[in-house]
Amino acid sequence: MTVSKTYADLDVVVIEAEQGPALVPSLNAPRTIDKRLVHKDYDENVLLSDIAQVVREPTEHRDGEPPVRKDHFRGVVYIQRDHQFFFEHHRDHVPGLYLIEAGRQMSVAVAHRFYGVPFGVEFVMSEFHVWFRNMATLDDALIIENAMSQHVYRKGQLTGMHSYGSIRQNGIEVAAMSGSMVLMDKNLLRRLERRGRSA
């Protein structure tokens, strides 16, 4: 039996199977988004099946302060039940580390798809906080609601941002995350890595 559920413009199809419902974004779409969008080499490490822009707010200009804008996005977490790392031990809930990685992937994918950040740019996390509110079950859709703000641009290219994400299941928040990322080219990252080794 197949049941289609809509979550604010994202269609999630629930397929009933012997081991329980499996979630895919639609019957015709790929199982997960392009692995390049989340900086992964293997498809099995991609934890998102869809992302979409919800609202892009106008920029507010206040006297003496940097411009302020908050953009909103939504994504669907794909639960890889047979993932060798996250589900190494049997469990009946989605592990917290899985949710954290899905949230990180959401921010990176949004930057590439909706802000035009080219592939080859590295994302370095400078701050991160997470709050776990409830257990996430394996059977129902997990929706990430993401707000991007504090955009920093250099020569017209996004070089930094703040991300706040809320992961919900059946309308109930299971986790919230907040963090800042700095975007840099691979050469700058290599120089920083060399400096770290020599310190």
Helices and strands, with pairings:
Layout: E1 2-7, E2 10-15, E3 22-24, E4 48-56, E5 71-77, H1 96-115, E6 121-132, E7 142-154, E8 157-169, E9 172-185, H2 186-198
Antiparallel strand pairs: 1-2, 2-3, 4-5, 5-7, 6-9, 7-8, 8-9
How large is the count of helical segments? 2
Number of strands: 9
Under CATH, the topology is which? Thiol Ester Dehydrase, Chain A
CATH homology-level superfamily: Hotdog Thioesterase
Could you explain how this protein is built, in words?
There is one protein chain. A hairpin with a 6-residue loop joins strand 2 and strand 3. The chain is built from 2 helices and 9 strands. The chain has one domain: Thiol Ester Dehydrase, Chain A (Roll), CATH 3.10.129. The strands form 2 sheets. A 6-stranded antiparallel beta sheet has the order 4-5-7-8-9-6. The N terminus is likely disordered. With 199 residues, the protein is an alpha+beta fold.
Gist of the model:
By secondary structure, this protein is an alpha+beta fold.
Task: Name some characteristics of this structure.
199 residues, alpha+beta, Thiol Ester Dehydrase, Chain A, 6-stranded antiparallel beta sheet, 2 helices, 9 strands, 42% strand, disordered N terminus
